[in-house]
Design a protein that fits this description.
The structure is a single chain. By secondary structure, the chain is α/β, with parallel strands linked by helices. The chain folds into two domains: about 250 residues, 3-Layer(aba) Sandwich (Aspartate Aminotransferase, domain 2), CATH 3.40.640.10; about 90 residues, Alpha-Beta Complex (Aspartate Aminotransferase, domain 1). It is about 35% helix and about 15% strand. It has 13 helices and eleven strands. The chain has a seven-stranded mixed β-sheet with strand order 1-7-6-5-4-2-3, with helices on both faces. Strands 8-9-11-10 form a four-stranded antiparallel β-sheet, covered by helices on one side. The longest helix has 21 residues. It is globular. The protein starts with a helix and ends with a helix. The protein binds pyridoxal-5'-phosphate (PLP).
Length: about 350
């Protein structure tokens, strides 16, 4: 049986969260001299001399309305990277507990674990980048506090079969974190629709990909109100800055444009998926539900350097076990994709 209180670190259960000036005052007032701000104003304009809402109430209400959930089921982080780090710190005692990682996958689970002195147990994905479920369940130890599942997976691009995820959710009593950073580009539904069924489920999403707001740093975690309350308890009080909160609210009003952008990116992805395999250098293009393609080529290091010399930066993944010979290529604009194809063709026809 999943028992949240028995998973959460004792120091977190016992601690008192930071109480901000804006937490302690409720009501209306005209003079705010409670938070050591600059009362004269801000050189950056707007109301930026004031601390932002630590609870991001307006933003959470808007997101909740769009997603059809309660504001209390939403945590907002300074990027989803912050949510990854806080989940680790919420559950894992340094030097004692572990997480289960399923490589090849997003690198920050490992980085955060190393930073927090949390042991990393690994089960490699299958050659078609799916989860070997029985192996995963067998790898679970008493100290395994959470499993990270990235779907669609980075750097491979594929979605993880929902049956595999469901089996893990049902048979593992720790926390299952499904990172859906690329869900807007996928045809599979989000696991947010099934939060009520699984008290051990946390779903991560981000404004950095489809929403085009990587520079503003805004990530989301969706889970039961109990889990979210713990994340809120341990987060830095003002983790989402005022400009980000304002701009995200504006972006949320433009859902139609989001749809158009996603459609265009998926269309470009399809075009690249069809064209790349016609090039001699390209051995395989892995199926993608994301805004990038994992591409196996005959000479990953050579092509990577050649593209760099042309001013085209892709991600060389050839040293990642399971991704030997692969480059990860984000979907660019129509023109950028054409330049990429031209450059690969040029690489092939060199002396
Ligand atoms: C799978 C995955 N999760 C999370 C992130 C980080 O997102 P954010 O910009 O919200 O921190 C990335 C960024 O590349 C990613 O690929």
């Amino acid at each position: 049986m999943f028992n949240l209180e028995s998973l959460v670190r004792e120091n977190v259960l016992k601690m008192k969260p930071y109480s901000s000036a804006r937490d302690e005052f409720k009501g209306t007032a005209s003079i705010f001299i409670d938070a050591n701000e600059n009362s004269l104003g801000s050189l950056a304009g707007n109301n930026y001399n004031r601390y932002p809402d630590p609870h991001q109430r307006k933003l959470k209400e808007q997101i909740a309305a769009i997603k059809g959930m309660e504001p209390g089921q939403i945590f907002l982080g300074n990027g989803s990277d912050e949510a990854i780090d806080l989940l680790l710190r919420l559950l894992c005692r340094p030097g004692k507990d572990a997480l289960l990682n399923l490589p090849p996958t997003y690198g920050m689970y490992e980085v955060s674990a190393n930073l927090n002195e949390v042991r990393i147990d690994e089960v490699q994905l299958t050659p078609d980048f799916q989860i070997p479920v029985e192996q995963v369940l067998q790898a679970v130890k008493p100290e395994t506090k959470l499993i990270f599942i990235c779907s669609p997976n980075n750097p491979t691009g594929n979605s993880i079969q929902p049956e595999s995820i469901e089996k893990i959710l049902r048979n593992y009593n720790g926390m299952v974190v499904i990172d859906e950073a690329y869900i807007d580009f996928a045809s599979t539904p989000s696991w947010t629709t099934r939060l009520k069924e699984f008290p051990n489920l946390v779903v991560l999403q981000t404004f950095s990909k489809a929403w085009g707001m990587a520079g503003l740093r805004l990530g989301l975690a969706f889970a039961s109100e109990e889990i979210i309350a713990y994340l809120d308890k341990i987060k830095p009080p003002y983790n989402i800055n005022e400009a980000t909160q304002e701009l995200a609210l504006k972006a949320l009003e433009q859902q139609e444009q989001l749809k158009f952008m996603v459609e265009e990116i998926v269309q470009e992805r399809t075009l690249l998926e069809q064209t790349l395999p016609t090039l001699k250098q390209v051995l395989h293009v892995y199926p993608s539900d994301a805004n990038f393609l994992l591409v196996k080529v005959t000479d990953a290091n050579g092509l990577y350097k050649f593209l760099l010399d042309k001013g085209i930066v892709v991600r060389n993944r050839t040293t990642v076990p399971g991704c030997e010979g692969c480059l990860r290529i984000s979907i660019g604009t129509l023109e950028e994709n054409q330049e990429l194809l031209n450059a690969i063709t040029e690489f092939e026809t060199q002396d």
